[in-house]
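Structure (tokenized):
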């Protein structure tokens, strides 16, 4: 299956999930995530009224809806037509945020527009991750900041997920990354790392092993455990 077909399958999976929860999803997780992100980036950028912010893969509302200090907020998601048709999603959003139906591979913005770009566990959903990072670099100002968070796997986990991908067990995630994949193929030499944190494989493995969720238990028994990493990057 080519990359475009695989991405479309992932988008169909994502769309069906949001449709299934549209009437009962608790949107407050966006506020929780936003508080975490704002605390982490505070030492590196001051959010003012004219601070240009973009969130890539904002979902139904995005953490950007809670960055209320800025009047220059933008969000893109290829499923925006769905999200904007659901009244509860729209009611949750801050109306000052400008939402676009667009992909990270083709951002509809001019060069060096943004001071801050947020991409939170999105890259593994994309059609072409390297192109997404290229577009981020194009639209980010010099010395601009990226908040980047992503689930990663060790080499064994990536290998097993590669086997799973052949039979499309995880339809929502076309790509699997190790931390080296991110550093070598995505960040390369274009950014300085200002901050780095990780959840840790062992901590996540224990959580999955002791869960009552069948899917998480299987991942733990197969040692396909994720390590969520967060970076704050500064464009050189």
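Design, position by position:
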């Amino acid at each position: 299956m080519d990359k475009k077909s695989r991405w479309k399958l992932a988008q169909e999976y994502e769309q069906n999930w949001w449709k299934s929860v549209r009437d009962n999803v608790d949107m407050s997780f966006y506020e929780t995530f936003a508080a975490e992100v704002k605390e982490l980036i505070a030492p590196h950028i001051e959010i003012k009224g004219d601070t240009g912010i973009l969130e890539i893969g904002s979902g139904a509302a995005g953490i950007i809806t809670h960055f209320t200090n800025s009047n220059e907020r933008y969000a893109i998601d290829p499923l925006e037509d769905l999200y904007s048709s659901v009244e509860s999603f729209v009611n949750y959003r801050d109306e000052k945020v400008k939402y676009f139906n667009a992909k990270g591979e083709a951002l509809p913005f001019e060069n060096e527009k943004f001071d801050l770009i947020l991409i939170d566990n999105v890259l593994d959903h994309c059609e072409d991750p390297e192109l997404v990072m290229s577009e981020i670099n194009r639209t980010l100002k010099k010395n601009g900041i990226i908040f980047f968070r992503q689930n990663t796997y060790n080499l064994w986990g990536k290998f097993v997920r590669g086997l799973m991908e052949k039979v499309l067990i995880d339809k929502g995630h076309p790509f699997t990354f190790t931390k080296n994949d991110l550093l070598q193929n995505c960040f390369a030499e274009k950014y300085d790392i200002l901050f780095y944190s990780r959840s840790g494989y062992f901590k996540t493995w224990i959580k999955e092993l002791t869960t009552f969720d069948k899917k998480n238990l299987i991942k733990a028994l197969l040692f396909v455990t994720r390590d969520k990493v967060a970076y704050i990057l500064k464009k050189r």
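Reviewer-requested clarification: The mean pLDDT is 93. The first strand starts at residue 52 and ends at 56.
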